[in-house]
Design brief:
By secondary structure, this protein is mainly alpha-helical. It has helices at residues 3-8, 14-55, 58-92, 94-127, 134-163, 180-184, 189-217, 223-257, 259-265, 297-303, 324-355, 362-388, 401-404, 411-437, and strands spanning 169-171, 174-176, 277-279, 282-284, 287-289, 292-294, 393-395, 399-400. The chain has two domains: 13-168 and 415-440, no CATH class; 240-397, no CATH class. The strands form four sheets. It has a two-stranded antiparallel ribbon with strand order 1-2. It has a two-stranded antiparallel ribbon with strand order 3-6. It has a two-stranded antiparallel sheet with strand order 4-5. One of its GO terms (molecular function) is metal ion binding.
Length: 451
């Protein structure tokens, strides 16, 4: 049955539409965490290996070898979840891919090329530790880092296009005059790709540091665990204030290009100047209640003036309203956790500036142990703002979600099956990663000695 024939048979039922959306949300939410470690961890292990060769300190090399094993496992798991996502794009959303596939095909193709480059050089890096000279082995890891970042960039380009569909014309309902480069480099590409790539390094940094923070809390204060904490936490701490500035850039972008999403994020129902910045609160009967409001805060944020007019949901047709409660809660969660991580980063930076050492309080380590979880929750909340805030559009202003979903019945069955697959993947990944993290007798190479 063709897509046109399927549409003629009628749209998907509400239950199947919900099943397709939940399946896509589960797959994307699971994969994005693994992908962040795949993007960020190669930089950490390359830095550790470089420092080990430069200083002759075997603890750096030991860290690099341990992290390389983790990267190999996460890459394999990410390849599985990424493959599932690629099939879901066609199976669940044929209205999107069938209509606009030629417009957004280029970034997906380039992501595939980046993935293969990453796989090839990761294989070389993992299996050539003792077969290549140290400098050559270190250089073989650089394409892994660059290809991982490029892969994230191209995938987010496709998502950015869904928020700002450029690079084509619609002639009698058919796509024409396709410009794939204009589509890929649309106005949403700079803020989204920058925000996502920095988030990936933060998740990898805080997540890796959290493991070593637990070890430090348990009294394992040897140099290996201290370095295992300091390297990733320093990277994440440096990037945290940068990410907040990028978030400000993204908010200004939304005010100009996707005002309905910004209005939903702030639960702003009335258009006008001196728009308040709302912290917390819940939406009841179309009104935000119990929020802490900063007078004129939103107007200052998007226009640097309290007189800046900010569009509210009153100018958006009711049928085009995003789910305000969900978007507002996700936005507050993302921002709140971002500033909490900023305070933790400043605590760490102050102690390092004063004593060239970690903060002495065990509370710092307790919070640091939770920083990886906080970074992941902030990441997921950010994606909820991006994806749910675009609803009811799968392609903003062009194609509604219920018109893009596969009208075939039984999509709930797919959601149940995919849930089972991800449960197995999660358990297997946790088991393997725990085995990798167990102490083992040091090989001569991990001590920086010749084999």
């Amino acid at each position: 049955m063709s897509w046109a024939d399927a549409l003629a048979a009628g749209p998907a039922s509400p239950a199947d539409l919900a099943g397709a959306r939940m399946q896509m949300a589960l797959s994307l939410g699971w994969h994005i965490v693994i992908a962040c470690f795949g993007v960020g961890m190669p930089g950490l292990l390359l830095f550790a290996e470089w420092r080990g060769h430069r200083t002759g300190d075997g603890e750096y090399v030991r860290l690099a070898r341990r992290w390389a094993k983790a990267v190999g496992v996460l890459f394999a798991v990410g390849a599985v979840s990424g493959t599932i996502l690629s099939f879901e794009m066609g199976l669940l959303w044929p209205g999107l891919m069938g209509t606009y596939g030629e417009v957004i095909g280029v970034p997906f193709a380039m992501e595939g090329i980046a993935f293969f480059i990453e796989a090839i050089f990761l294989g070389v890096y993992l299996y050539a530790w003792d077969r290549l000279p140290p400098r050559a082995h270190l250089l073989s890891g650089i394409p892994v880092l660059l290809a991982g970042v490029a892969s994230a960039f191209f995938v987010v380009c496709a998502n950015a296009w869904m928020n700002q569909p450029y690079g084509f014309d619609l002639v009698n309902g058919e796509v024409a005059n396709v410009d794939p480069w204009a589509a890929m480099f649309n106005p949403a590409t700079p803020p989204q790709t920058l925000h996502m790539i920095i988030a990936a390094f933060m998740v990898a940094g805080y997540g890796t540091a959290g493991v070593y923070a637990v070890a430090l809390l348990r009294g394992r204060r040897e140099r290996y665990h201290r370095l295992g904490f300091q390297i990733p936490f320093t990277l994440a701490a440096i990037l945290t204030p940068v990410q907040i500035l990028v978030g400000d850039y993204a908010a200004r972008f939304l005010a100009e290009y996707q005002p309905a999403k910004l209005a939903a994020a702030e639960a702003l129902y009335r258009t006008g100047p001196r728009a308040p910045l709302s912290l917390g609160g819940i939406v009841v009967d179309g009104e935000l209640r119990y929020a802490l409001e900063i007078p004129s805060g939103l107007s200052l944020l998007v226009g640097s003036s309290p007189d800046t007019v900010v569009q509210g949901l009153d100018l958006v047709p009711r049928a085009d309203h995003p789910p305000v409660s969900v978007v507002h809660l996700a936005f507050d969660t993302m921002v709140g956790l971002g500033f909490a991580l900023l305070l933790l980063a400043l605590w760490y930076g102050y102690a390092w500036w004063r004593r060239r050492d970690l903060p002495r309080s065990r509370w710092f380590l307790r919070f640091a142990a939770l920083s990886g979880v906080a970074a992941v929750i902030a990441l997921e909340a950010g994606w909820i703002v991006t994806e749910v805030g675009r609803q009811p559009w799968v392609v903003y202003g062009r194609l509604r979600t219920h018109d893009a979903v596969n009208p075939a019945p039984g999509l709930w069955v797919g959601f149940v099956l995919v849930t089972a697959v991800y449960l197995v993947l999660t358990l297997a990944t946790v088991h393997v990663m725990r085995r990798i993290s167990r102490p083992a007798p040091l090989a001569p190479q991990e001590r920086g000695e010749a084999a």
